[in-house]
Design a protein that fits this description.
6-stranded mixed sheet; 9 helices; 26% strand; 31% helix; alpha+beta; 13 strands; Major capsid protein gp5 fold
């Protein structure tokens, strides 16, 4: 008994907007920075900065001073696709093992239920891969999934404001003491640059985040009490949504793309951009049954780019 695949495309077509939104915008980083839609090709990010000079205000007269500088940086999207196919015989095995409906037999197969599980999992895997590339992507040196567009590590480059100063430089982020020092140095440097009074996020890998959290929990009568009692204002603080560092009011969020990197980046949401061609991407998830190959096929195509408007307004430690 083979699968009746006639209903497979129905699930995709009826839920295309929902599925493609999950694919294109479902990665964790898409919710944490500024997303720019309809980036079809190289897109310019205009940068505007003013230099202001205070003057003696008594008396009459007008003495113009100060400058307005307008420059630009480019969002360069990478074109990405995912092609997958399945033999119906293989799907049959997957369906029976999932036990979607009690008493299901070969003569009562519902492909849409099977397809929903498969496509949802494909979306999850794409989201995880995109989250990695949003940081680690590099069109010059990247390998595997990280070679199709430049991630934040590349687009920020060496232009960030270095927080690994003011004492002996940190040589690792993977100890309790180093993780605590990391947060303090980032905060002090951001404050000196006038960046700590506006909403911003410190991005670290899950590995570094674990050391930060452990240091807070072990803080005894200081930070430990605040974390354990929920006094940091974020009772849902955990490895997936981050925490607000006690006393600093600075959000710390772990991301997959910085795992194993021993790098930490603090920036305002409004300074970090992810470009997507969402308008076109929402029509780019397709599935069909190939009569000639007797296989079910799925294709997803989308574009992604990253950029920061002002690299110097990113405060970072890069070991």
């Amino acid at each position: 008994m083979a699968f009746d695949v006639s209903g497979l495309t129905t699930y995709i077509e009826e839920n295309k907007a929902e599925l493609t939104t999950a694919t294109v915008l479902g990665a964790k980083m898409m919710k944490l920075v500024t997303v720019m839609p309809n980036v079809k090709g190289t897109h310019k990010l205009p940068q505007l900065s003013n230099t202001i000079f205070l003057q003696e205000g008594s008396g009459c007269g007008f003495d113009a001073s100060g400058t307005t500088a307008i420059t630009q940086r480019s969002l360069v999207p990478g074109k990405v696709k995912v092609d997958m196919e399945w033999c119906p015989d293989d799907l049959e095995t997957i369906y029976l093992s999932s036990q979607i409906r009690a008493g299901a037999t070969y003569d009562a197969v519902e492909p849409a239920d099977v397809w929903r599980i498969i496509v949802d999992n494909v979306n999850e895997q794409i989201n995880a891969a995109v989250d990695q590339s949003i940081w680690k992507g590099d069109t010059t040196t990247g390998t595997g999934n990280n070679q199709y567009f430049n991630g934040f590590i590349d687009t920020i480059g060496a232009g960030f404001t270095d927080a690994n100063t003011g004492g002996t430089p940190l040589t690792t982020l993977y100890t309790e003491a180093a993780a605590g020092e990391l947060v303090e140095r980032i905060y002090r440097t951001a404050s000196a640059a006038g960046l700590s009074d506006t909403p911003g996020t410190l991005f670290v890998g899950y590995d570094t985040y674990a050391w930060i959290y452990q240091g807070l929990v072990n803080g005894g009568s200081t930070n430990g009490v605040q974390i354990n009692s929920g006094a940091n204002g974020d009772p849902d603080a955990d490895m997936s949504v981050g925490l607000t560092f006690p006393g600093y009011n600075m959000k710390i969020i772990p991301v997959q793309g910085l795992n194993g990197e021993e790098k930490a980046y603090f920036g305002k949401d409004s300074n970090m951009f992810i470009g997507v061609d969402a308008e076109a991407d929402f029509n780019n998830m397709n599935s069909w049954y190939s009569q000639d190959q007797k296989k079910v096929r799925l294709q997803v195509k989308f574009k992604v780019a990253t950029q920061v408007a002002f690299p110097a307004e990113i405060v970072a430690i890069s070991i």
